[in-house]
Amino acid sequence: MIVTAHDIATRFIGVREVPGARDNHHILAMLKLDGAWPEHDEVPWCSAFVNYVAWLLRLPRSKSLRARSWLEVGRPVSKGHVGFDVVILKRGGGDQPGPEVIDAPGHVGFYGGETPGKVAILGGNQQNQVSVQLYDESRILGIRALWEE
Predict the structure, then answer these.
(1) Element containing residue 6 per DSSP (H, E)
(2) How do residues 100-130 score in pLDDT, each as one tens digit?
(3) Strand pairing of 85-90 and 140-145?
(4) Are 88 and 144 in contact (CB under 8 A)?
(5) Are 41 and 21 within 8 A, CB to CB?
(6) What structural domains does the chain harbor?
(7) In what order do the strands lie in the sheet with 129-136?
(8) Rg from Cα positions in the chain
(9) Cα-Cα-Cα-Cα dihedral of 73, 79, 82, 86, to 10°?
(10) pLDDT in tens, 23-33
């Protein structure tokens, strides 16, 4: 039986930031795996979550807290599959640069399926927790496979 990144990521559903002066130590561990600066869990941590799950499975990692850094990891695929694929999204609305710009706002998580016009993302820092959320397909910058088939 192959345990996928998506399988491992589901075990973290419900892990959430702690508001105020206290912090969730699980999130801090994820953040500090690849960056020394975060002192609190109330910072963007979606890439830290994906890096942590990839680290647990010895998969390729971006080793960056920037969501768009995942555009340079793995191999590009045109359609996502539940398992080892990550989806990189534009963050928010407005005029955002395309996938050629790594140093810009973004969001990353594990591919969790599709509905018409939407993509399901299993990720961290989604409403301040690990959860599954639907995003407009128009926000997709890229889909990357972390596993060679």
Answers:
(1) helix 5-10
(2) 999 999 999 999 999 999 999 999 999 999 9
(3) antiparallel
(4) yes
(5) no
(6) 5-145 (3.90.1720)
(7) 75-76, 140-145, 85-90, 106-115, 118-126, 129-136
(8) 14
(9) 30
(10) 999 999 999 99
